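Duplicate of #3305? Posting structure anyway:
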């Protein structure tokens, strides 16, 4: 039983390290405001890419879900 606990705790530690690495990579992969402005320069493009009617509407939506998304 002691061997099983050692293997399990080692797997858990490896998994936690992997999750931390992935979270760090995700933070750098998120689009920047400059990138958003590049592709969504007009209301027509915002509507095409996001299905929201305008940038302010999209920002209100994003600000409301951002806390739970991270």
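Output from current build:
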């Amino acid at each position: 039983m002691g061997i099983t606990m050692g293997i399990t705790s080692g797997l858990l530690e490896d998994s936690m390290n992997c999750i931390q690495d992935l979270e760090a990579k995700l933070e750098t992969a998120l689009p920047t405001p400059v990138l958003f402005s590049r592709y969504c320069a007009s209301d027509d493009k915002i509507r095409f890419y996001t299905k929201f009617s305008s940038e302010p509407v999209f920002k209100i939506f994003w600000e409301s879900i951002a806390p739970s998304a991270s």
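Confirmed duplicate; merging threads. The chain has four helices and no strands. The radius of gyration is 20 Å.
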